[in-house]
Amino acid sequence: MGYDAFYEPAGGDTFVATPATAGPWDARSQHAGPPSALFARAFERHEPVDGQQLARVAVDILRPVPVAPLTLRVRTVRPGRRITLVEGVAEADGLEVLHARGWRLARSPESAAVGEVPGGSVPGGSVPGGGVPGGGVPGGAVPASGVPGGEVPDLPAAGPAEVWPGAHSAGYMAAMEWRFVRGGMTLPGPAAVWMRPRLPLVAGEETSPVCRTMMVADSGNGVSAHLDPARWLFVNVDLTVVLHRQPRGEWVLLDAVTTIGPDGAALAASRLSDRDGAVGQGMQTLVVTPR
């Protein structure tokens, strides 16, 4: 690809976006997944409290985020031993481009007795590392199969042109690995896809599972589109991810559905899972307009 990460650190809270961050709509603008993950990284690290974990991240997209240096300013809004609210602003080219808030919650050893939430199994299909997940996929079951070597799902990999026809090959679409369980961007309607980044979020660092989940979650509107992207824009103005369990492993399953209203607004809702079951939900508010 010619680059080693989505971002290169530039000192302090500034990060230089590489071409891997570019979204499919415009090679000059970032896909919202990487900068949302950058906020999650900042929220995990800012004034950490022992035993707390990031449970919610909400990002508002004020304007397109250029593929350029991005500076984050983060502060604690509500400190606490059990709950902490943090918020941040991302600036590029002298403009505020993103606002975000994150809730960190204290881990509770007693919560383990509650058990997994109903419906917490992974939809049917191949799972990274092998094994047969429980449950079925709405719209048709997919036969489960083992994974040779336990490294990748036993599903065909989709290339950038298959994921988003006409997208430039240097950006986010190529920097992520895609394994569709059902549906696809070339097929209208709900879709489920295993995803993982091919590159670290920040050069020289291990990407946390929460950051990987944020990178994946912002693709819900794309994979479950009902409209032809050559004729329609269906861009999101926000992304909210709520985690009832911390994700594990490199792969994240995005199981997404888009509902389009009659007046130009739409909602993309995504169920997020790892190989052990559901970890949370993603939600995006969309504006739908003809190109």
TrEMBL record:
Domain Acyl-CoA thioesterase-like C-terminal span(s) in chain numbering: 160-288
Gene3D superfamilies, alphabetized: Acyl-CoA thioesterase, double hotdog domain
Superkingdom of the organism of origin: Bacteria
Region of interest: Disordered: 113-135
Boundaries of every Acyl-CoA thioesterase-like N-terminal HotDog domain copy: 22-104
Feature: compositional bias, Gly residues: 117-135
Protein name: Thioesterase family protein
